[in-house]
User: Fold this.
Amino acid sequence: MSLLLLFAGLSCTTVADEKQYSAPGIGFIEIRSDIDGARVYFDTLYMGYVWGGNLTIPIDTSVPASWKNVRMEYSNYTPYAGPFVQTKAGMTTAYKIDLGKDTYYNTGIVTFSSEPAGAEFILNNESMGITPDSGTLIYYTVPRGLYTVTTRRPGNTTITDQLYVDNSAITNYLVNLTKSPYGGLQVNSTPEGAMVFVDNIIRGITPVELSDLFIGDHVVDVRKDGFLDYVKNISVIGGYVESMDAVLVTNPQAGVCPSDNMEQKKP
Assistant:
């Protein structure tokens, strides 16, 4: 009955072919999975299926949550159930669930929280996703073990830490990000071996990664004998590595002596 009242109280608008719901006290739970068609349940109540990598469910946060578990099922995969975590009004809490074909006995749950939101969490070089507007991403089915966890967000300093995940336990990981005064730039060129100047100061030979550029606008000049200079204006964002590929064009005047040009100009 409460679920019916919830949907009855929602106002629905269509924007760019997507339905958006709004009502006082409504929050959202976003289920993320790589398996399109995976069925999602709150306890035994069917909530829908994942499509396009996610399923977003409106939740009435003005009443206490009555559900205990979030369940996911898909044919030929081992079903999974984890604790339901309530969201906040006007906010989205994301759950990431990876279904497998083996037992989940040696897995745990990690709650990633970032301030500000919009941070990407990486476990052992594998992206776990980006925190939604609530700043909370709950990742079920994390195998037990010690991980290197990296948190990055454009404009902020990247943080790398160690995180141990135990089986049948919830591990909470909170990161407060600070603004970064520096950004990075990876400069590649075809052909390689070109000199890289940033604001008329030589910084290396391609391929080269520069990690200490102040945020803001810079002029990058890529030079190599026999080729025309490649000049580009870039904007550096703190805590973010930009990539730049310079395709050098042969200089038609390369190897031509000034005396040759003078001879060609004689009548």
Q: What stands out?
A: Residues 1-19, 258-267 have pLDDT under 50 and may be disordered. The first helix runs from residue 2 to 8. The chain has two domains: 2-176, 182-247.
